[in-house]
Design a protein that fits this description.
Length: 204
């Protein structure tokens, strides 16, 4: 059976008025499509887990966002992801009203596809991670950003597990979209220069 988390209730309750119907709608769609989904608050916003991380939602000052954890592995049959601007957090773009959401049928189909990926144990492709080390889960938006800069991608690819983790955690732990985007931009810049996350403190 699925679970509802009171912390998610509180999150929605504290959100701006425009965001409440959006968040409630998304929440309802996820639970209808995936009755066994479990709600959790991670990184300060609601996540929906089903045999691992599946999707999440968040509200900001003027818009909401919804993210599929394994979007890069999804077919995107209705081109929902491909129409989203890179600056927008999440895979549905900037959601300012219920009209910005895909139809219920499309959302349900996408959620079920995300479920299937977790059912089959399909994981995100690793970026040259060593078999002898733990797997580092790198968000799709992080991979997409550094992939735009060949130097940044090459440096990240050759970094040790700990160095990669420092950058990924720094970006994902940002409490606001603005902060996350700034950190992501800085990450790409520093990686392109061959710098580690804590390069300022490294011994020369």
């Amino acid at each position: 059976m699925g679970t509802f988390d009171k912390k998610v209730d509180a999150y929605i309750g504290k959100s701006n008025e425009f965001a409440k119907p959006i968040l409630n709608k998304l929440r309802t769609l996820v639970h209808k499509a995936c009755p066994d989904v479990e709600e959790k608050i991670k990184w300060s916003f609601p996540h929906f887990d089903y045999k691992g991380m599946m999707c999440s939602m968040a509200s900001f000052k003027s818009h909401c966002a919804f993210t599929f954890w394994k979007a890069s592995l999804m077919k995107d049959k209705y081109k929902v992801f491909s129409n989203v601007k890179e600056s927008a957090m999440g895979h549905l773009g900037r959601i300012t009203s219920l009209k910005d959401l895909p139809s219920d049928n499309v959302m349900t189909e996408y959620i079920k596809e995300a479920m299937k990926l977790n059912d089959e144990g399909i994981t995100q492709p690793k970026i040259s991670s060593s078999r002898s080390k733990k797997e580092l889960i790198v968000p799709d938006y992080f991979i997409r950003a550094i992939s735009k800069n060949k130097k940044a991608l090459k440096v990240f690819d050759t970094f040790s597990y700990s160095h990669k983790k420092e950058y990924v955690e720094w970006v994902t732990e940002a409490k606001t979209e603005e902060t996350r985007n700034k950190r992501l931009a800085t990450t790409v810049e520093w990686l392109a220069e061959g710098k580690g996350r804590n390069w300022k403190y490294e011994k020369k």
